[in-house]
Amino acid sequence: MHSRTAMTGHRGRRGAAAGRADERGAVAAELALALPAVVLALLLGTGALGAASRQVLLQDASADAARLLGRGEGAGSAQRVVQAAVPGAAVSSSISGDVVCVTASVEMAVGALVRVPLSAHSCALEGGL
Asked: Which residues cross the membrane (predicted)?
C-alpha cells in the first residue's frame, strides 16, 4: 500500500509540471498575439504626437507670415517663413479690409499608410507693427 501512495504522489507532481508547461505555452501564444497590437498602438501614438507638434509649428508659422504681410512684406517672405518652419507646406493669403489672413497647410504621413492633412489659419492687421 505504501508503494501505491508513492506512485500516486509521483504522478501528481508530473501532472503539475505538465500543467505549468502548458500555461507557459499559452502565455507565449497570448504574447505573440498581443505584441503586434501593442507595437501598432505605440507607432500610432508616436505619429499622433508628431502630427500635434507639426500643427503647433504650422500655427506659429502662419501667424508670423500674417504679421509679415500685414507690415507690407512680400508674399515671398511669408512663404519662406512657413517653409523654414514646416518644409513642404503650402501658403495662401487673403486681404479683407484692413486684415491680412494666411492659411498654411501640409499633409503629414503617419506610418506608411496614414496621411493626415494639417492646416492653420492666422490673421493680422494690415499696417501693423
From this structure: 31-52
The grid coordinates of residue 39 equal 507595437
Tell which residue, 122, 111, 108, has the closest CA to residue 53: 108
Q: What length is written for the chain?
A: 129
Give the pairing of strands 99-110 and 114-125.
antiparallel
pLDDT in tens, 34-75: 888 888 888 888 888 989 999 999 999 999 999 999 999 999
Closest by CA position to 82, among listed 107, 109, 108, 64: 64
pLDDT confidence bin for 15, thresholds 50/70/90: low
Q: How far is CA 118 from the centre of its chain?
A: 12
* Alpha carbon distance 67, 97 (integer Å): 15
Angular region, 125: left φ>0, alpha ψ -120 to 50, beta rest: beta
Residue spans per domain, the chain: 2-125
